[in-house]
Specification:
The protein is an all-beta fold. The protein is 0% helix and 65% strand.
Amino acid sequence: MNCRKVYVAVTLKVDKHGNICPLSIAWENGQIYEIDRLKLTCKAVSLKIGGGGTRYTVIICGKERYLFQEGNKWFVEAKENTG
């Protein structure tokens, strides 16, 4: 399956200790997706599309997804439309 890197806007909650919790993402068409739950945070690279930094394993619409913080930018791995 082909994937592409999609940069997204992210709404965050940052606590007094500097811990980051993503709350929602804005997709490239403007659609807002709420993050139901944050499962895990770790340093990682995207094996599908390259790039990396801090990887947030999140639940969006009941599905597990990876959200990456790459410096000051955020991206997700999106399936390529091949239709």
